[in-house]
Specification:
With 329 residues, this protein is α/β, with parallel strands linked by helices. The chain contains 10 helices and 13 strands.
């Protein structure tokens, strides 16, 4: 029997997409771990091929009983509360920090490959740049508790020496199919598509910075299919460890993103700029752009899909027909 690949958060956005990518490689010896609750994310699982599913608390209980210790090859730890507006700090500590420590400690003590999701949110407002040089991690100042919970684990892994044996991936603004269940945490592509269908226009926040005009705030937008290629690189290359940015290395404006959605729908752009909620203003990032030199030096050389091409694929092949990711036949 083949050893298991564990995908935590495997019913979620990037997690279910990762299972899809593994399925396309002919891999289905997968145990999915998640917390389905009352959400609609179970729909992401329906087309996928995997051996078993466990709720996240049951999975930890199985690890602690050592019943899975000889059966696991790799843990791809994508599971987390990813809400940037979550205010229950204790919940984020338990779910994003303590849970990650338990999984990592198990992996290191049982010679199991461990790849986990960190986040571009650890960089805060970007004044210190977006370099994944680990010597500067302590100086980073996340703007929200979600980002800090990710930063806490990054620092723990560094301070314990674990980071020399595991890979942490700082995903930037990932968008694409299978994010439909994420409600307010969906990408602007998905939200804008719905607005266009319903009203014919898109609402974007005004800029409150003299350095950026309305709609000209910038993000490093990453198509999920490209994020998966990078993630699988670390799955296959077990000796490539440390923290790595998963971004395109190119910052694009919100206007360019929205224009691409209108273009994919063969419609003329129509954007309305609205006031930003007061609570978001002090936490708003006006610019993100991943430094990808370290990623390239690691050996990952695949090109990232241009923004308009990736938006067109998402809109035309998934949003318009209402499809999830389905493994190739």
């Amino acid at each position: 029997m083949q050893k298991l690949i564990i995908v935590t958060g495997g019913a979620g956005f990037i997690g279910s997409a990762l299972v899809w990518a593994l399925n396309n490689l002919g891999i289905d010896n997968i145990l999915i771990v998640d917390h389905l609750g009352n959400s609609e994310k179970f729909r992401n699982l329906v087309p996928l091929k995997y051996i078993d599913y466990l709720e996240k608390d049951d999975f930890i209980a199985e690890l602690e009983k050592e019943s899975l210790s000889r059966k696991i090859d790799t843990i791809l730890h994508l599971g987390a509360c990813s809400s940037t507006t979550e205010t229950d700090s204790s919940y984020l500590i338990r779910n994003n920090f303590e849970y990650s420590k338990k999984l990592c400690s198990f992996a290191l003590s049982h010679d199991v490959r461990f790849v986990y999701a960190s986040s571009g949110a650890t960089y805060g407002d970007g004044t210190l740049g977006f370099s994944d040089d680990e010597t500067g991690m302590q100086a980073l100042r996340p703007l929200n508790m979600y980002g800090y919970s990710k930063q806490m684990f990054d620092l723990w892994a560094q301070q314990t020496g674990a980071l020399k044996k595991i890979a942490g991936l700082k995903y930037f603004n990932v968008f694409g199919p299978n994010e439909y269940h994420k409600e307010d945490m969906r990408s602007v592509v998905h939200k804008a598509y719905e607005q266009i269908v319903q009203t014919g226009k898109v609402r974007l926040f005004k800029s409150y910075s003299p350095n950026y005009g309305d709609g000209l705030q910038k993000r490093d937008f990453v198509y999920v299919k490209d994020a998966l290629k990078a993630t699988l690189f670390f799955y296959h290359n077990r000796n490539v460890n440390g923290i790595y940015n998963i971004g395109t290395g190119v910052a694009q404006t919100w206007k360019a993103l929205v224009d691409a959605i209108f273009s994919a729908l063969n419609r003329k752009s129509c954007i309305e700029f609205i006031e930003m909620p007061e609570q978001l203003k002090p936490k708003y990032q006006y610019y993100t752009c991943a430094s990808v030199s370290k990623l390239r030096l690691s050996g990952f050389m695949e090109e990232f899909t241009p923004l308009e091409e990736s938006v067109t694929d998402y809109v035309c092949n998934y949003l318009v027909p209402g499809k999830h990711l389905e493994p190739e036949k």
